[in-house]
Specification:
Blueprint (H helix, E strand, L loop, with lengths): L3 E2 L28 E3 L4 E10 L3 E10 L6 E7 L5 H16 L8 E9 L2 E9 L3 E2 H7 L6 H19 L5 E2 L8 E4 L2 E4 L6 E2 H6 L2 H12 L7 H7 L8 H17 L26 H11 L10 H23 L4
Parallel strand pairs: 1-6
Antiparallel strand pairs: 2-3, 3-4, 4-5, 5-7, 6-7, 8-10, 9-12, 10-11
Helix pairs in contact: 3-7, 3-9, 7-8, 8-9
């Protein structure tokens, strides 16, 4: 249950030494500053990251049913834009309705009020490492079994989203939005999620503006998103998510992004796919090629991708047992 926070003991959101700009989009929480809702207290520990709409902090729950755990506190700061506020509130709405072990869990929501400024926030599960960071820390090398397990989790989350009624499109699948815990991955950041019905009725101009600034990561574009960025009104389907997933799958297996870096986001996508060596290499290569098909109708469903990944995972596990005598 959300609550408007008017607590005289909560410190001001802005850094005292730095004047606020007229649009109030600047946001800052001091160390150990507490934000609360009707059901919990969340004490800021440190800054985690800042996006176009929200600033995220690591927080300790100091009161309520979740006392003692660490959570991610994401506070909306782009309050000068009513459209972005609505988008953020929609993101919270999606978090509240989703229930899958490979999707970040929703815990709480509220509004942080400072004088005449209202900052909505959401409290979600904290997972400390993204796939992007994992790749960076490991020299972009991931053993094949671990890579497959990360992708199994991510694909399972995508199958769940696409199986909703109506289907949900994530639209922002990239290593930075895939969080890693052990050998399990969780899909995060639902700020760009749309139902298939909503995606079909979006005005191209509105979507184009959204894509350029947020919904089309430079290295994880899809032909449909590029078309809409050009104002062509290209239809979006769940196949667009499959294309992004195919780019991530190729990258985690080979260490390289398959898309040639574009000069502009509206440039046509150019792929540089190399043969995948090793056991099941051809099978995985064929799968990725189908996921990156130019025509959306030629791409497999999330369920079909999951089936191939499961077969490949089984074969790799059996091979590792034969070679090392160890179960993996």
């Amino acid at each position: 249950m959300s609550a408007i926070i008017r607590n005289p003991h909560v410190l001001p959101a802005a850094e005292p030494e730095e004047p606020l700009p007229p649009d109030y989009d600047h946001f800052y929480l001091q160390h150990q500053q507490t934000v609360r809702t009707a059901s919990g207290y969340y004490q800021n520990q440190r800054f985690l990251g800042r996006g176009g709409n929200g600033t995220t902090f690591l927080a300790t729950v100091t009161g309520g049913p979740l006392t003692g755990i660490q959570v991610a506190l994401k506070i909306f700061h782009k309050i000068s834009s009513e459209q972005r506020r609505r988008s953020f509130l929609e993101e919270i709405g999606y978090y509240k309705t989703l229930d899958h072990p490979a999707i970040i869990r929703f815990y709480d929501e509220g509004e942080f009020v400072v004088r005449d400024r209202v900052y909505p926030f959401v409290v979600v599960e904290y997972v400390p490492r993204s796939l992007q960071r994992y790749l960076s820390e490991n020299g972009r090398r991931v053993d094949r079994i671990t890579a497959l397990r990360f992708m199994l989790s991510t694909t399972a989350a995508l199958q769940y989203l696409h199986g909703r009624e109506p289907p949900l499109l994530h639209r922002d699948i990239k290593p930075g939005n895939i969080l890693i815990s052990g050998e399990q991955a969780r899909l995060a950041d639902f700020g760009l999620v749309k139902s298939l019905e909503e995606a079909a009725t979006d005005e191209p101009t509105e979507v184009r503006e959204e894509i350029v600034y947020a919904a089309m990561p430079r290295f994880y574009r899809t032909p449909e998103l590029v078309g809409r960025a050009k104002g062509e009104g290209t239809a979006l389907t769940t196949a667009s998510d499959i294309y992004q997933l195919g780019s991530v799958l190729y990258e985690i297996i080979t260490g390289f992004n398959p898309q040639v870096p574009p000069k502009d986001l509206t440039d046509d996508i150019v792929l540089n796919l190399k043969t995948i060596p090793g056991r099941c290499g051809k099978r995985l290569g064929d799968l990725i090629a189908s996921m990156l098909a130019e025509n959306p109708t030629d791409r497999p469903t999330a369920a079909a991708v999951l089936e191939v990944l499961l077969r490949s995972h089984r074969d790799y596990c059996a091979s590792a047992k034969e070679l090392t005598g160890q179960f993996v």
